[in-house]
Structure formats: structure tokens, C-alpha cells
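Morning run. Coffee first, then this:
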Amino acid sequence: MLSRVRVWLNRTYAENVFFMDQLRRNPSARAVEIHATHGDADSPVLAAADTAELEPEGLSPAGYVEFALDQCQRRGIDVFVPRLHQAAIVAHRADFAAIGTALLAPPPEAVAVFHDKVVAYEAVQAVGVPVPPWWRVRTADELVAAVEELEAGGHKACFKPASGAGGVGFRIITRAPFSLAQLNGFPGPYVSLDMVVEALKEAEEQVDWLVMPRLEQPEVSVDTLTGPDNRVRLAIGRTKNGRRRGFTQDEQWLEPARLVAEGFGLHYLSNIQFRMFGDRPVLMDVNTRPAGGLHQLSLCGVNVPWAAVQLALGEDTGVIEPPFLGQDYTVVSGLRQLRPVSIPAQREVSEPLPAVPAVPAPAAAEPVVVQAAGQVLPL
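And here it is:
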């Protein structure tokens, strides 16, 4: 009988409750026990885990590595999926391996390349992957020069931090002055160039932004599963065009994603994003971690989180082809139960797991619910 697998997700996105569900519903019918840590006591990820702890605040990256090693040793972690302080953690892969923990994350060299978007764009261009025009700016004068050059070419300018994840800090430049029109409805991404320039001039420190043309839809996020031998086992594109979402196996998206994943050793799970610049796809971003929407690939008949855990445990999955591509869908908010206490009751490690539960049983007290994006509905 195969032993249970103990998986730890550190401070991660609320959507990864679905990642956890898929691990428990794995096609191998293998018992999985999940440990979670977070800085927010009311994170649904903590409630969905079998055991959970609050993470200490204020740790340096080196201090966090010590915390992580202690967690792995005390909790008997087989596979650790790090998001917070990923770069510091993967630099100590040998230390985790020495206590029996496999890291489900790329090697430090790959993480370093894609931490900085300028370094990433220069690197992927060298292997033949197209990128949009870009300018690195730190001052108001550099920003204005980049915006004027883009506008002269007929493009709308936007900017985002040179390092960072998701859409944090993304803004679209407009020449329109600030007015009541921008106070109607919900806040949007548009910001007046004059306001940005004034803020930069008043700031006491430089920014580090990437300025580029606003890219057009569709946006295609290619989820890749790559072995430690640098061979891609799975690549599926998730398309987004307004509310409508779907899947693609078109090589115009998959081929450059494979070049990036294999060329830079993006082991295990990564997410490589493209948009259109004119009539061709260009690289937008590379995430060296599982995407929040990875669970949506279940609509294509594959359980990618479990396949990644298998690879981390040294069990080769072979090449995985989706048996079909799911129909177009949209994403809506859903409900997830929270525990009535700040930290879920802890199951003793020696206590046997129930068979492969889809969702952990709620506590006996009246539950609290939280909205979490990520439920999918067909269109």
C-alpha cells in the first residue's frame, strides 16, 4: 500500500483551495494530507488544509528559510510548493532534500531570470521568443520620453513594476486630465500622465517601471509542466477575451512557451503569458509558480497539480495530452467555508486520513463563508 503524501503550500492565493481539492481527488487514489501556512488567519487556504499555522511576520528571506526547514521537518513534508520567498527557498534545495522534502519549484537560476522583467525580456529574446517594445524608466523624464515614443508610433502606453506578480501596479497612461468622469463607476486602470509625472517629481525615491505598448486580446496563459530533465510534459493554453475564456493547443502559443520552459529550466509548474502586438503573439510575463487558474485545466480532463507532485516525488508522468479541450467558460465568485476560529483545528499527523475527500469537513459550529473567485461555469 502506498503511503500518504504530505504537501505544504505556504502563503498562497485563495484560489489555490482548488489546487488542494485536485490533490485530494487525484487519479491515483493516493491519500494526500495538506499543510498550509499564511499571514491571514482567515485565509480560506488555511480552512481547507488538514493542518495549518500562521506564518511569523517580519522574517528576512534567510529567516523564512529557517522557518520553512523547521516546518518541513516537524510536519514530515514530502513536497513543498513555495510561493512566498521562492527565490531564497530554492537556493537551499539541498537542505530541504536532506530532510526528505522535495521542492515543487524551478532551480534558483530560472527564478532569478524571471524575477526581473527586463532581464527576462532580454533573455527570452536571445532564444527567439518575441517580446513587445519596452523601456525601463526610473524618473519622470524617462517616463515622458517612453510615452511620447510609443504614442508617436500609434500605441497607447502602459506601465507596471519591473518586478512583481499579477496585475499589481499595472496602469494605462491617458492624456485626459483628471475629472469627475474618472470618479463615476468603479476605479479603472487609466491614469493621467500629468498626475504620474507630478507624483514622480514629488517622490523621494526612484521607481523601477517597465513602459510598453498596451497589448491586445486575446490573452493566452500557457500552463506548463516540465520535468527536472528540462522536458515539457504538458502545455495547455488558457485563453481570455473579455468575459469569455477557453483553451487552445495552437502552436503559435505553445511553441514559444515550450522554448521558455525548456530553455530556462522552468521545472514543475510555470505559467507563461502572451498577448497580441499587432498581428503576432508576444511574451507578456512568466510566472515561476502554479497559476491561480491552474485548476481550470480540469475542464480538459487533466489533473495537473497531482502530475506535478508525482514529478517532484520522482515518478515520471510521461507526456500528458489532454483527452479533449473543454468548452468556453466564464469565472464567477463562489463560496468557501471558513472555520469559526482563526486557525483550523489541527489533525494529529499520526491520525489516518479519510479516503480522498473532495473538500474538508467543516467545523461543527455555524460556518462563515467568503467569496473566492475561481468557480467556472460554461458559456
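The first strand starts at residue 5 and ends at 9. Good start to the day.
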